[in-house]
Design goal:
The protein is α+β, with helices and mostly antiparallel strands. Helices cover about 45% and strands about 20% of the residues. The strands form 2 sheets. The protein has a 5-stranded antiparallel β-sheet. Strands 2-3-10-5-8 form a 5-stranded antiparallel β-sheet, sandwiched between helices. A hairpin with a 2-residue loop joins strand 2 and strand 3. Helix 4 packs antiparallel against helix 5 and helix 9 packs across helix 12. The longest helix has 23 residues. It starts with 10 loop residues before the first helix and ends with a helix.
């Protein structure tokens, strides 16, 4: 579909009808005074629409009024092939140069801006086929040509190139496009924010690392220092491989191992005290539990290796 089929004076109005019919209801205006030309190559494979757009400069808007007039719910992905563009949505701007890609959601306002001529591949899928949990933070985020998302962009570009010559092959691969778009959404939305429990556990682990050589360190002391209840403290470790006591014991034994290697003449009683153990018996018991050997045997073996 091309504006070459109409008179130059009618080209942009014709173009606006084309993009509304191809994508969703939009308003547009040219950004240059040059004669406008545009071309669209469009194909549909299952839930995936692949559209290559080559056109002159323009500013495109998806407004609240247009959204209210229709029930179109799509996620669109623009992959820049030539020229430059800007996608704005949800208070963010994605600046696209060749090879870069970005997502936008038809259920919320957005703008597309192109100062001059450009070419894009636009991939459009129903919103329902993609996870809403990752979509909210992924719109108008630039996935650059040098990012991992380039692998997704290259796959989609390949589908678009083949859709005219090998429709059966493209149909076989189209389901993978949705899975790859989901992966790219996850890249755009970034790593999930750590849960409050994870942050609490991180704080506890930092406190244990800093204070494990203190023989007075106890569960109550850790809970108080980290502003947690004793019950909450223990619940942080319920699904972890090591409990709170296991972590404290391992940290103390690791410190003892370092001392035994660094100062082999140091009495074992002194090593135990410096590493936070209440006495020789608890030191030996913990050391054997963690390492499978005694402090004395460990020190001999370390000396022989040296």
């Amino acid at each position: 579909m091309t504006t070459d089929s109409v008179r130059p004076a009618e080209a942009f109005a014709f173009w606006q009808d084309l993009i509304c019919d191809t994508f969703v209801q939009l308003s547009a205006s040219p950004t240059t005074e040059l004669p406008f030309r545009g071309r669209i190559s469009h194909g549909v494979v299952g839930d995936v629409e692949l559209t290559t757009v080559r056109a002159g400069g323009q500013h495109v808007r998806r407004t609240p009024r247009l959204i209210a007039r229709t029930r179109e719910e799509f996620v669109l992905t623009s992959i820049q092939l030539a020229g430059q563009g800007v996608i704005a949505q949800d208070g963010r701007e994605a600046r696209l140069t060749p090879g870069a890609m970005a997502f936008y959601d038809s259920t919320r306002p957005y703008t597309l801006h192109f100062d001059g001529a450009f070419e894009q591949l636009v991939v459009q899928v129903p919103r329902r086929v993609l996870p809403a949990c990752t979509l909210a933070g992924a719109t108008a985020v630039t996935l650059g040509a040098d990012s991992t998302a380039r692998l997704v962009a290259d796959f989609l570009r390949g589908l678009a190139r083949q859709q005219a010559t090998d429709p059966a092959g493209v149909a076989a691969l189209a389901p993978h496009a949705v899975a790859l778009l989901t992966s790219a959404l996850a890249l755009a939305s970034g790593p999930p924010a750590p849960s409050p429990a994870a942050l609490d556990r991180e704080r506890v682990m930092a406190h244990l690392a800093a204070h494990h050589t203190d023989p007075r360190l106890s569960a109550d002391a850790v809970a108080e220092a980290c502003h947690l209840s004793r019950r909450t403290l223990f619940r942080l470790f319920e699904i972890e491989p090591e409990g709170l006591g296991d972590v404290l014991r391992r940290l103390r034994v690791t410190s003892a191992q370092r001392l035994l290697r660094a100062q082999p003449a140091l009495p074992l009683t002194t090593v135990a005290a410096r590493c936070g153990f209440a006495g020789d018996a608890s030191f030996h018991r913990a050391f054997r539990t963690v390492t499978g050997t005694t402090p004395a045997a460990y020190r001999r073996a370390a000396g022989e290796r040296a």
